[in-house]
Design brief:
This protein is an alpha+beta fold. The protein has helices spanning 15-24, 51-71, and strands at residues 2-9, 30-36, 39-46.
Length: 76
């Protein structure tokens, strides 16, 4: 079983984008979030063979959504 942890700083990753990405990746990888000061700590678990690739894609997608919201004038 694959498991890894990432910390997403809120000045780079919107909490809303992280939540939206978590929902979008349901079925591909399991993500558990924990709020920490100014960040979201995520623990990922899932398929051993593709886990790293899926987590990288998750991070990229969350960053994309954050940038998109920023460009559209969102406060997050």
């Amino acid at each position: 079983m694959f498991e890894t942890r990432r910390v997403f700083q809120h000045h780079l990753y919107s909490p809303d984008a992280l939540a939206e990405t978590k929902e979008a990746y349901t079925g591909f990888i399991e993500a558990t979030f924990e709020d920490v000061e100014g960040a979201t700590a995520a623990t990922f678990s899932g398929d051993e063979e593709n886990g790293d690739v899926i987590v990288d894609a998750f991070c990229n997608h969350a960053l994309f959504l954050t940038i998109q919201a920023h460009r559209q004038g969102s406060s997050e």
